[in-house]
Design brief:
This protein is mainly beta. The protein has two helices and twelve strands. It is globular and about 50 Å long.
Length: 144
């Protein structure tokens, strides 16, 4: 049975608005979990990087779908000038049927932390409208 997938895209600029030439982007899942009868193994996924501009695309298992929970992705980037960047916090990737940006993922992680102890649930407008009743202990983020 196939597992869920979320596509994440991203790009980087220098402070002078030039493309920062990304050469490598890695997303390392911190642990194993289960979804839909399948075991998900901890491993590292390398993003596809467009050589001309350094933009990247990666398709990952959205670890918010895990049965046991508690997994996250450590994310790091390498650039053509030899510099590197590591995301300061591990990321939880939410399920999305449409591609999301790295900025979206980071924002969702910040929002998740900001609403604790309430839960954060990310929905489309139609999914939100169909909820009856709405949980008073959940903050709903509508993804456009």
């Amino acid at each position: 049975m196939p597992i869920s997938q979320t596509t994440i895209t991203g790009s980087f600029k220098t402070p002078v608005n030039a493309d920062a030439q990304l050469t490598d982007a890695t997303f390392k899942l911190s642990g194993s979990d289960f979804e839909g009868g399948e075991g998900i193994t901890a491993n590292t996924v390398t993003a596809a990087v467009v050589t001309e501009d350094g933009d990247f695309t990666v398709t990952l298992w959205p670890n918010d779908r895990g049965m046991t929970g508690g997994t996250s992705y450590a994310v790091s980037f390498r650039f053509s000038d030899g510099s590197t960047m590591t995301m300061p916090k591990a990321l939880v990737v939410s399920h999305s049927d449409t591609p999301v940006t790295l900025e979206d993922v980071v924002f969702e992680n910040q929002a998740r932390g900001a609403v604790k102890p309430n839960a954060l649930r990310i929905l489309t407008q139609a999914q939100y409208d169909a909820l009856t009743p709405k949980d008073p202990n959940t903050v709903y983020l509508i993804r456009g």
